[in-house]
Amino acid sequence: MWKEKAVRVILLGAGSTSILIVILIFFFLGREAFPFFLAPGISELLGTRWIPVSFQRESFGILPLISGSVLVTVLATLIAIPFGVCGAVYISEVALDAERETFKPFIELLTGIPSVVIGFFGLVVLAPLVKEVFALQTGLTALTGSLLLALMAIPTIISISEDSLRSVPKSYKEASLALGASKLQTIWKVTVPSALPGIITAVMLGMGRVIGETMAVMMVTGNAAVITASPFDSARTMTATIAAEMGEVPFGSVHYRALFCVGLVLLLTTFGINIVAQRVLKKYRM
Amino acid sequence: MMKTGATEKAVYFSMRAVTYLIVLVIAYIIFDIVWNGMRVINWDFLTGYPRRSGAEGGIFPAIVGTFYLVLGTIALALPLGIASAIYLSEYAGQGRFTRAIRLAIITLAGVPSIVFGLFGLGLFVIFFGFGSSILAGSLTLACLILPIVIVSSEEALRSVPASLREGSLALGATKWKTIYKNVLPYSMSGMLTGAILGIGRAAGETAPILLTVAAFFLPRLPRSVFDQVMALPYHLYVLATQHPEVAKVRPMQYGTALVLLILVLGVNIGAIILRNHFRKKYRW
């Protein structure tokens, strides 16, 4: 019997590693970031200028980075929602069988393409296109990043929305059709509203992916740390800042700690979005 | 009546147009990489060492580096992930602890990859003192793909019907023996799918290895797990953004991108085919 018990204990240990890793992630990000709260202090983080290397005075205000992330994320979400939802409704409700069977796996294939490859495509093909179409000085703008990120969020949105559209009971649609509603009315007034919680979750998970995305966004947004609301300006996100600067900072410096603070903000944001998305999904599970 | 029909058709048409647009854009990305990369890839490119910071020569060290990283990652994540899935599917109850594990898995799946990089830097590179190394990188990537392995393995275990377990238990076998002899063999294929998806993810990630392993330019092969290595995704990033002659080395960039794309998409498509194959094989 000891063998059974040993196996059980080992498996329990393995099962707990996920919890352990999550705790360690929070702990080690906090550990490396914490001295920053003591030395320059939290008020330093709330500044509006991110100038990590300077001969006069460095400044570690993360507001420009947050505004960069927000700008790119909001734009990407606004672009991705209509495309993603339209695509999901089409594939689930309208498409021919042949289209349905090929399109969904094909679109899901995009989630498998490494973000650095997408970023490379954005840099070489999309950025010159954006530059030309909008007659800009450079194609490396917040808009370029948003377009690329929207493209990366669309498969997530389509995949999850389509699952939830499909799980709407057939009887709902039949009742609506029997009452004389057209197919289109049934889709927009019955099927889509019933699947709405799933669609909202899909959009939130897509957004989570967009906020956390690093390589693609770093390669095409130009990375100027300025507070702006214009999609045609260059923007610098939190993720890109960490990835671009971490390689050059001395271990333990204020700049190093500041980058961990940015990571902590990023972690808490995505954690929050995920928790809310799961709540929504659970509450309305059909 | 006539009018409704016309609107309906117009709406369907625009929805179809949107869907086709998405599909076309994805197809174009793949086409662009394949078309431009094809002309660069040859035997020398795949087996040669890079020269002049990657402007000439091949990408052999980056291929080997990615191979080692993926190998290390899978060796760490697979046993842990499968054991974790067995616990969740066969042993765990409905209690608080189980819910905490599930929440942790969902959280892990949502953590941005750059944050995994910071975590790996803080814990493995600095705290454990592994330095920038294959070991630190593999450990970091293993944490990143763990949720993928757990979720797909658990799904595979749950798809084995309860009657197989009950039959074995009724004959007097112990719980572990039942799992080992009657559940694991039938869920192996599903677990394999999870492992393959994990490989695809680990091979393509850039941000975590940026902070934990990757060498900018290192035209030699690693000697131990404490060595730095080049890796395909990072090599592509460096060539595309950091190289002094960015436009001139474009062919090398496309070649690297294509090798990475073939590797990752090939792995993903393999996983899908395998899953479909075994779904047909075991129909309960």
H/E series of chain B: HHEEHHHHHHHHH
Uncertain stretches of 5 or more adjacent residues of chain A = none
Residues in helices of chain A, as a percent range:
over 70%
The radius of gyration over CA of chain A amounts to: 23 Å
How much β-strand is present in the residues of chain A? under 5%
* Main sheet: strands, sense, barrel of chain B: 2 strands, antiparallel
Number of strands of chain B: 2
Strand order of the biggest β-sheet of chain B: 1-2
Number of helices of chain B: 11
Would you mind describing this structure in some detail?
The complex is a heterodimer of chains A (286) and B (284). With 286 residues, chain A is mainly alpha-helical. Chain A is 77% helix and 1% strand. Chain A is globular. Chain A starts with a helix and ends with a helix. Chain B is an all-alpha fold and 284 residues long. In chain B, 76% of the residues lie in helices and 1% in strands. Chain B contains eleven helices and two strands. Chain B has helices at 2-38, 43-47, 60-91, 96-110, 113-127, 134-158, 162-170, 175-204, 207-212, 232-242, 250-281, and strands spanning 50-51, 56-57. A two-stranded antiparallel ribbon of chain B has the order 1-2. In chain B, helix 3 (60-91) packs across helix 6. The model of chain B has no long low-confidence stretch (mean pLDDT 88).
